[in-house]
What we know:
Helix content of chain B: 25-40%
CATH superfamily of the largest domain in chain A: MetI-like
Strand order of the largest sheet of chain B: 7-8-9-3-10-11-13-12
Structural class of chain A: mainly alpha
Number of domains of chain A: 2
Oligomer: heterodimer
Order of helices and strands of chain A: HHHHHHHHHHHHH
Radius of gyration of chain B: 21 Å
Radius of gyration of chain A: 24 Å
Order of helices and strands of chain B: EEEHEEEHEHHHHHEHEHEEHHHEE
Largest sheet of chain A: none
Structural class of chain B: alpha/beta
Amino acid sequence: MKKFVLKRFLQMALVWILVSMFAFAIIYFAPGDPLYMYMTPGATGHKLTEAELQAMRESLGLTGNVFQQYAAWAQKMMHGNWGISIQTKENVLSLILGKLPCTMGLMGASMVLSLIIAIPLGLIAGTHKNKLSDNIISALTYVGVSMPAFWLGIMLVIIFSMQLQWLPSSGMRSIGVNTTWDLVKHAIMPSIVLSMNNMAVFVRYIRSNTITQMEEEYVLTAVSKGISKKGIMYGQVLKNCMLPVITVVGSRFGTLVTGSFIVESVFNWPGLGTLAMSAINNRDYPVVMGITMFSCTILLLGNFLADILYGFADPRIKIGKE
Amino acid sequence: MSHLLEVKDLKVSYHSYAGEVQSVRGVNFTVDTGESVAIVGESGCGKSVTAKTIMGLIQTPPGEIKKGSQILFEGKNLLDMNEKEWQAYRGSDCAIVFQDALAALNPTLTIGRQITEKIMIHTDMNKEDAMKEAERLLTLVGIPNPAKRLKQYPHEFSGGMRQRAMIAIALACQPKLLIADEPTTALDVTIQADIIDLLKDLQKEFQMAVIMITHDLGIVADIATKIVVMYAGKVVETGSNYDVFYNPRHPYTQALLRAVPRLDVEEDQELESIEGTPPNMIAPPAGCAFCTRCKHCMKICQKMEPPTYEFEDGHTAQCWLYHEYAQK
């Protein structure tokens, strides 16, 4: 176990470093300049001189080639210094941590929602293979997988906010209202949109698992013991169907992170996604890097936790034992 | 005397895209209390399907049990039972041991759980008593250290031990009939012998009827008192162990026995194989199914199905050679 954890952490560190290099290079070579807003006269009409811009670049660590800049960033990172936002001059880490609860809440709600709906649907489809209920559920999953999140989001807003006026179209809270119900009302549509894709994937996965498990010979043994159909489903098959789902849930954290960027933009949810979008648009390098690395960490930890959990849930897998 | 189990004109088909596969085409045999019967035949002859039908394990569709088929267990036709009656029958009256115990045991449940769940369905024992009973059963089938073993999972057992655990599950609730569907095929030879001995001992001890399904004539000789030889979905010969081995009547049985080396013969022996392949069960032949591979094939064999001829005391064969007009 110790050896396994150590090995996995080394692997994760390697992935983390590679991701940071790629991300840094992409941002560096992307067109645009974080100081663009200072170069053109804005509302103040004040235009910075070339010397002032240069001084600003130096103070922000934007001089030198890509290697030097990366080295400087990495060195700061190793000391736990995530940098300062160019836009707001706030500490990047505290900026991220401040937005984190909103995004985590949304991601958690959507993960729970997608599992709550996907598990029964997957089981029904799997046990009624090629029957009407399976065909309907399977058709819906194709729709769920192929529907773009931004489109679904806009459609929901048009129907439920503009036409029916049941739900608020954007934001997290109504101004001046501080009730849980208000928060829930705001969260309903973003959670649905964010969970749609994962839900469809989970349903398909659980369906195919159920079908394979139902054809296993141990099911015949269970029947031959005189166990009822329901008893076999819940007592024997269910656990074996759900075990591999742990791994899939872990690996879907990535979709959740990227999905939340889109969903938060559509619904103007004040989370990491919105922060990331505005940081990218303004070439706020430290913030973009910070969010990228933070998401990367979440993703790696998600996969790692899934592996560990699987080891506890499945008796056949003993982590670290040869 | 009424039989414990009586299979009458059993016909089972599977519907596939290629057509209707007639796996079992009118099988008749009986099993008495405490008797051990072996069903012998090559792969695809319908022996496993017959066994599964007796346990009610045929999925319909794609399977279909034809009208007119009867399986009488203590005089009651199993094929008329509803799901509730099947559940009560399975496990307590009749139990089955499959070929591959690794596949037949649930990989994520402990052996203890897999034994006790059966006990708790058919008796009103609580969990604790059921665990004690399970421990007794494991001891009975020769698994050392049963209390510890109950808490283990199938993958922690060796192949032979797994099959023993499988037998322990089958034995729970003391069924009157035990079906062993090629119980030793997946095991190596020394362990095969152990398992066969175990089944023999248990059968004697509990006066349990056993149906042993196998393609291995060596096993049959050791355990069965009665032998049912199947070919292409039909019973071609039945008789006592002695009659079938020393006085086989059907050319298929004779050919089978010539294909097995004998240890009681001192001179060099030539092992024969049976030429040809079994018939296509989607379109089974009109006459005797074995006629294309039979050395004694006559004209009538290709046209009409042979009737069943009875010889001394229960020895029967389905073959035209025993018609009064056939050349001896």
